[in-house]
Amino acid sequence: MTEVVAWLAGAGQGRDALGVVSGGDGRGAIGALPNGVVLVDEPSPEVRFAVPAWGADFDPAALPALEVVQVRSAGVDWIVDRIPAGVTLCGARGTRDAAMAEWVVAALLADLKRVRPFAQAQAVRRWERLDIGDLRGLKVLLLGHGSIGRAAQRLLAPFGSEVRGVARRARDGAAGMDALGELLPWADAVVNLLPLTEATRGMVDAPMLAAMHDRALYVSAGRGPTTDTYALLAELQAGRLRAVLDVVDPEPLPPDHPLWQAPGVLISPHVAGDTPGSDRAAWALVGEQLRRFARGEPLANVVTEGY
Predict the structure, then answer these.
(1) pLDDT at 10
(2) Using CA atoms, how far apart are residues 274 and 36, in angstroms rounded to an integer?
(3) β-pairing, 242-245 with 217-220?
(4) From the CA atom positions of the chain, what is the Rg in Å?
(5) CB 4 within 8 Å of CB 38
(6) Phi, then psi, of 164 in degrees rounded to 5
(7) Count of other CB atoms within 10 angstroms of residue 116
(8) Regarding beta strands 242-245 and 68-70, do their DSSP bridges make them parallel or antiparallel, or are they unpaired?
């Protein structure tokens, strides 16, 4: 077997006798690597397989031997435009599904159970009764019905929510985008799980938000730029919609941005998919991909059409 030099951002060369990369952040899940796989601390001209960190200053074109870039994020929008011809880009689809689905359910519950207003009342020691809602019977529209959307739908099923999915093209279990005109007014909650592509950038715009019924909830956990921030802000400030957002545009959100103070919004800093379990799953995928590459086998999650 030809030697495979692999660079794993932040992983270093701390391997035990079985060739397992050490580390408390999930990298131990890589598992045993075949003889001939060499891990390096820094990118070098010999690197054939690279695992850059999210948002890293990484130039694949500077690595003449590079054949594969494997990321540990489900989305690849942050790096896809930097991949040279002839280099294969692989995403981490599937590894963050459980964490993302849990966050979606938590976001819906946080809104229904009025977490923000109760916390605000507690902060000023005010005993205030507010109406709370149920997941049972809630009409949830999943905008983006890939593996994360399907995981969210499975997790919502025992609660008795009525869930519908929308995908780029209609298929079993999901309507096509042309059904949005009918589905947006139907939904009590719209959950945006869209990847960021040229087709989805700014897709959730003023007309789409206006099509949602009064007092509906907008949840966003895909990518911030798929939503027109100021169109959403206008709906929040008018009190017509509420929102729970894990992704925004821009990121990080500046301290003086009006979205922070908008009524009816909860914001988390793009962490929905970042849990110990999802991190272990992503590193386990890295290990499996390395083994496939070393054996000359087809790789999983090869990126086509930009995502």
Answers:
(1) 59
(2) 31
(3) parallel
(4) 21
(5) yes
(6) -130, 145
(7) 17
(8) unpaired
pTM over 0.85: yes
Longest dimension (CA), the chain: 70
- Which residue spans within the chain are E strands per DSSP? 4-8, 37-40, 49-51, 68-70, 88-90, 139-143, 162-167, 175-176, 189-192, 217-220, 242-245, 265-267
State the amino acid at position 20 in one-letter form: V
DSSP 8-state assignment for residue 212: S
Contact of 234 with 114, CB cutoff 8 Å: no
Closest by CA to 221, choosing from 161, 111, 142, is 142
Domains delineated in the chain: 4-95+275-295 (3.40.50.720), 97-267 (3.40.50.720)
- Sheet with strand 49-51: strands edge to edge: 37-40, 4-8, 49-51, 68-70, 88-90
Rounded to whole angstroms, how far apart are CA atoms 303 and 80? 9
CB atoms within 10 A of CB 188: 19
DSSP string, 155-178: HHGGGT-EEEEEESS-BTTBEEGG
pLDDT tens-place string over residues 100-123:
999 999 999 999 999 999 999 999
**pLDDT, tens only, 201-230:** 999 999 999 999 999 999 999 999 999 999
pLDDT in tens, 134-192: 999 999 999 999 999 999 999 999 999 999 999 999 999 999 999 999 999 999 999 99
The vertex-103 CA angle with 97 and 104, nearest 5°, equals 90
What is the C-alpha to C-alpha distance for residues 176 and 170, in angstroms, rounded to an integer? 4
CB 51 within 8 A of CB 37: no
